[in-house]
Specification:
The protein has about 180 residues and is mainly beta. The chain contains 1 helix and 20 strands.
Length: about 180
Amino acid sequence: MALYEFSGRRPRIHPEAFVHEMAVLIGDVEIGAGCYIGPCASLRGDFGRIEVGEGCNVQDGCVLHVAPKEVCRLLPNSHIGHAAVVHGAQIGRDVMIGMNAVIMDGAEIGEASIVAASAFVSTAQRIPPGVLVMGVPGRVVRALTPEEIAAKRHGTTLYQALARESLATMKRIDV
């Protein structure tokens, strides 16, 4: 994997986390236990700090970045879909950010919420727990059902299992 020290700050990866070799981690980035960081994900802790909590997944092509002296924080079991951008936001526990969604600086996504694919959550926007956010700009459209929250949690457990299996079996091959 591409790990870069920046101004004396180095990425820290829990030994039970999987970070794909084509992911890029720069500077003040911390990856918790049981995380999955997919190929072509870019986590740039050059201006500020990035914290990826236990059991999170950051899928292929995602970008996590932060403004100077700020923190981008993913609380445990966050699920960041393919090509999403999280810039200096706080993502609550058990949240799912859909593919190609954008979450801006200072935004806070409440626990067990889902931000739909391609939604845009603006700077400093506060999303309550347990809701579905859709659109550009993002707006709360309704409360999630218990079944939807359970389905999201199940999806996250699949990525946690993928992290374990990837650590145990993934090998680069030459053909």
